[in-house]
Amino acid sequence: MSIVTAEELPTDGxxxxxxxxxKTIGLAVSDLRRSIATGIITLRRTKMAKDADEVFALYTERxxxxxxxxxxxxxxxxxxxxxxxxxxxxxNLLAVRDVPILLWDERLSTSxxxxxxxxxxxxxxxxxxxxxxxxxxxxxxGALDFLSREN
Length: 151
Prior knowledge:
The chain is of the alpha/beta class.
């Protein structure tokens, strides 16, 4: 496979959601019916080969059939340096293992999750600990909701 459109994703099996940052990668997974996204872990980034091994270990363990990768599009819809970095990350993942990857507009996902955590009166130290995996779940849930409307 490769970078795919929503219509090209396999229609069954869980999806793995990724929110790649410069220092961490938030990961989330959907249920089998693709209705709920759950944040599972935040990986500390090291070398790409090790990062890919960890991502694909979870991908295999959770029996995923595709990846939803958060693409940080700017507010005006253009792609800046961060989006190009995510596209390079996707290419690097595909060089390790050929799986379908959907790039999903993740505009404001981290700030939306942070707002929810603040409203829930979550301590700053706890927010820092969970924000990346929850942002991955937020991104994946947006894709799941879109996919459910399309089918």
